[in-house]
Design goal:
The chain is an alpha/beta fold. The protein contains 14 helices and 16 strands. Pathway: Amino-acid biosynthesis; L-serine biosynthesis; L-serine from 3-phospho-D-glycerate: step 3/3.
Length: 427
């Protein structure tokens, strides 16, 4: 799942190239030691002070700074560097705009790839309360997509997108494909659900995915934050019956994270991303200057697929670990810690998929947790962070946010969507 890293030679992008740019070589010498400090913005006071201290002690102002042994951080992307999930935002955009480069036969195989034939979680039953499994739902999507493929002018037909939007098959295709993604995630483990959604880019090359990602990101950044619902048409129940699914809408950039990453880099500290979203999507968001994060493309570690002649193949990249859960730690160790000889000084995350990398490196001085009031292992780390608020030299920091606005709050406490009361920990 990893693609590219500043570790001598670029790994996993289908080509070899020197990844240490002249800009990276000279960053330390270009920084004046009395410049470029973190902005307060909406950081909690405790977190702001701790992050400033980290930068002062480990950046170019630090007495032990070595430009040949640059310190680095590793951050999650979705719901850590941004508000909401870019992979999921792009999925709905891809569906609504029929951005696919597969034949009906190819999509049919992708839909079923690696999915057990068990019934989905009972929360995913159809409108009549009947269980649904991959065979039932995939057969309906097959039929919808065949109709779309033969009629849409972006494929083999002559009808416009607006014409297609009026059809029951279009509405059924979007609702049932989004329902399928949701059901896979609710029923099976992350090592099944996370790669599955990336297979929908099969047939595209890197530039096509990046162009699609930019359009989808721009669209989602302009969407209202909220929850939307889709229900398949009553007149086209198919094999699976009528199904409904809800999903989060809207993306937001986080000014605090934009400023943090740029400030770190300007102080001679490298920034890497380790994300469970597809690599070309994360590259687009993290590296395109228009989004103001400015993380170098070669510093993006994320989910990766096989490529043949630069075209994406719906197969997980051979020899790579999925960049979720323990796979994040394995990836960081393989491409960074083992090559550099030391671990990240800061790791940032928000969910269970980030717990391993938040805990596994002795060199980590700060584990920054975006507070989503979650339970489980990330809840346990959040409790450690909450117990340490106001103390010196703590490892875990908890940063609050407001889910109604998609912004950080100047507090460790968060406000959940459609709520007004702030909370510190999961209840």
């Amino acid at each position: 799942m990893v693609t590219c890293l500043t570790v001598g030679t670029l790994v996993g992008c289908g080509k070899n190239q020197n990844t240490e740019t002249q800009e990276n070589k000279n960053v330390a010498s270009d920084v004046k030691k009395d410049e470029v400090k973190l902005q307060k913005l909406n950081w909690s006071e405790n977190n702001f002070n701790a992050l400033n201290k980290l930068i002062e002690e480990n950046g170019v102002k630090g007495k032990n700074y070595d430009a040949n042994k640059k310190p680095y951080i590793v951050v999650d992307w979705d719901n850590t560097s941004i508000y909401n999930d870019v992979e999921e935002a792009l999925l709905i955009y891809q569906l609504e705009n029929l951005e696919f480069k597969m034949s009906p036969e190819e999509l049919s195989k992708v839909l079923r790839k690696d999915i057990p034939k068990d019934n989905f979680n009972e929360k995913c039953n159809n409108k009549d309360g009947q269980p649904v499994n991959i065979d039932l739902i995939a057969e309906d999507i097959d039929s919808d997509y065949k109709f779309i493929y033969e009629n849409y002018k972006g494929m083999k037909g002559d009808k416009t997108l607006e014409d297609m939007k009026k059809t029951s098959e279009y509405k059924d295709f979007i609702a049932k494909t989004r329902y399928l993604y949701d059901s896979i995630g609710k029923t099976f483990s992350a090592d099944i659900s996370y790669p599955w959604v990336t297979y929908l880019f099969a047939g595209m090359n890197e530039n096509e995915v990046k162009e699609l990602a930019e359009k989808g990101i721009d669209n989602a950044l302009n969407e209202k934050i909220g929850v939307k619902s889709l229900t398949s048409p009553e007149e086209l129940p198919g094999k699976a019956g009528v199904v409904s699914v809800s999903y989060n809408s809207g993306l937001r950039t986080l000014e605090e994270q934009q400023n943090l990453y740029n400030t770190l880099m300007e102080n001679g500290i490298d920034v890497y991303v380790c994300s469970a979203s597809f690599v070309d999507i994360v590259k687009t968001f993290a590296s395109n200057p228009k989004y103001k994060y400015n993380v170098p493309e070669q510093n993006i570690m994320a989910m990766e697929l096989q490529r043949k002649d630069n075209v994406i193949v719906p197969e997980f990249k051979e020899g790579y670990d999925q960049t979720q859960g323990a796979g994040k730690t394995k990836t960081i160790k393989r491409f960074l810690a083992s090559e550099k000889g030391y671990g990240p000084i800061l790791v940032a995350g928000d969910s269970a998929g980030d717990v391993a990398m938040l805990k596994d490196f002795e060199d980590t001085k700060i584990g920054l947790i975006i507070n989503r009031l979650k339970d489980g292992e990330i809840g346990e780390l959040s409790k450690l962070a909450s117990d340490s608020i106001g103390k010196d030299d703590v490892k875990y920091l908890l940063q609050g946010r407001d889910e109604n606005t998609g912004t950080f709050r100047p507090s460790e406490k968060s406000i959940m969507f459609e709520q007004t009361e702030e909370g510190l920990l999961h209840k």
